[in-house]
Amino acid sequence: MRIRKELADKAIKQILACPAFAGAKEETLRYILASADVLLREVSKGQQIYPCHGVKKCVGLVLTGGCHRLKNGRIVAAETDGFVFGVHSLYSSAEDDFVLTASQDSKVIIIKKAAVDWLIQDDFSVARSYLGFLSDFANQVYEKPEGKNRECAEKKLAAYLLSRPKNAKNELELPQDMLKIAKQLSVTKDALFKAIEKLNSAGAIDFNGRTVCIADEEKLKKFTEDNID
């Protein structure tokens, strides 16, 4: 599907906001977006976005709409438009351990590896920003700072609460065994309780015993916001 100018303008702005492509030139991105190595896909709510059907290696951009990140079939994060994915694994032999599905009808741009190769080879500033992005990510993985782990638990919990069915009062009941949620979200039980406290103190949720009320959905959604993947 051809990318119209207004969508291309939006895509360029979102791509340049990703640290991996901060060094790219607008005119170069516009040229690439018009090439056969870039696809625009319309994805209906619930359909898989990534891994991409028919494209093994790519970088993707949620141009409009949003998506859920799933691990082992469970939602662990909610992403919005502007979310870039596939950057970390593009030049890796390993595959990403998550799946993205559309949380609403969305438009997604798929940039094939050949286009990213050309972009990096054409401009050293792009290669430098891409390598810097991967280096920063590697440092975060190896250091595993406590603050990052805590933020991760808060994000996963917020996405979980937003995805669960609620009654007319915007309430849901947590299971009696909190360890079950911790395992589902791949966090420790201690991190889960700290995340609950954080969301509560921020005014995003209220809770009475095991009944949780979504006090401010917009505040809760802010906890699901993330840096580019």
Summarize the structure in words:
By secondary structure, this protein is of the alpha+beta class. The chain is built from eight helices and eleven strands. It has helices spanning 5-16, 26-33, 113-122, 124-143, 146-163, 178-185, 189-201, 217-222; strands spanning 38-43, 48-50, 58-64, 66-71, 74-80, 84-85, 99-102, 106-112, 171-173, 205-208, 211-214. A four-stranded antiparallel beta sheet has the order 1-8-3-6. It has a four-stranded antiparallel beta sheet with strand order 2-7-4-5. It has a three-stranded antiparallel beta sheet with strand order 9-11-10. A hairpin with a 2-residue loop joins strand 10 and strand 11 (211-214). It is elongated. The two termini are 25 Å apart. Residues 144-148 have low confidence and may be disordered.
Strand order of the largest sheet: 1-8-3-6
Structural class, by secondary structure, is alpha+beta
Q: What is the first-to-last residue Cα distance?
A: 25 Å
Output the number of helix runs.
8
The arrangement of helices and strands along the chain is HHEEEEEEEEHHHEHHEEH
Could you give a short description of this structure?
Helix 1 (5-16) crosses helix 2, helix 3 crosses helix 4 (124-143) and helix 5 crosses helix 7. Helices cover 41% and strands 23% of the residues. A hairpin with a 2-residue loop joins strand 10 (205-208) and strand 11 (211-214).
